[in-house]
Design brief:
A hairpin with a 5-residue loop joins strand 3 and strand 4. The protein folds into two domains: about 35 residues; about 140 residues, Peptidoglycan recognition protein-like (Lysozyme-like, 3-Layer(aba) Sandwich), CATH 3.40.80. It is about 40% helix and about 15% strand. With about 180 residues, the chain is an alpha/beta fold. The chain is built from five helices and seven strands; from the N terminus they run H-H-E-E-H-E-E-E-E-H-E-H. The relative contact order is 0.17. Bound molecules: zinc ion.
């Protein structure tokens, strides 16, 4: 009886240790992944001077479909040569490449040549027009992380919101105060 009981506890202990170890490995793996969201080779070969980061929103509702492919269509309809932003941050916090960094963006009149344009999916209320900072926690974390990584590549460059250069609400929050 005693040996059966001991065996039972040994098995429970082993499962516990295995679960703990797996948990630690998954956490480590995840952290490694999020630290390397940008391809450093691409950053080095950008071929133009980067002096600033400009944050935008897509002016879509939180519930609305928003992908790099859709934005590419919207921007082509506006006569741009494809998506104007360099990075798009989805509602789940994932980062997606838009226009290559080597190419001047089409996101902020007069400020495109030396900037990087980042847009998060969202920025308006469910009525489709009222500006609203509806960024998810995941988006907030990713914006912060992406800025930090870009600053590692390009120095401590300032961050602005689109509204600092135009009479617009975009990106529906004070990016300048938040990120500098
Ligand atoms: Zn904008």
């Amino acid at each position: 009886m005693a040996s059966t009981s001991n065996r039972k506890w040994m098995i429970i202990g082993a499962i516990g240790i295995a679960a703990l170890t797996t948990g630690i490995i998954i956490t480590r793996k995840y952290k490694t992944q999020i630290m390397n969201i940008l391809d450093r080779t691409k950053l080095a070969l950008v071929g133009r001077t980067i002096n600033k980061i400009i944050i935008h929103c897509t002016a879509t509702r939180a519930s609305q479909d928003c992908t790099v492919q859709l934005i590419d269509q919207w921007h082509r309809q506006r006569g741009f040569d494809g998506i104007g932003y360099h990075y798009v941050i989805y509602r789940d916090g994932s980062v997606h490449e838009g226009r290559p960094l080597s190419k001047v963006g089409a996101h902020c009149v007069g400020q495109n040549s030396d900037s990087i344009g980042i847009s998060y999916c969202g920025g308006v209320a469910e009525d489709g027009t009222t500006p609203q900072d509806n960024r998810t926690d995941a988006q907030k974390a990713t914006i912060k992380r992406l800025i930090a990584e870009l600053r590692q590549a390009y120095g401590n460059i300032p961050v602005y919101g689109h509204r600092d250069f135009a009479n617009k609400a975009c990106p529906s929050y004070d990016a300048k105060a938040t990120h500098n």
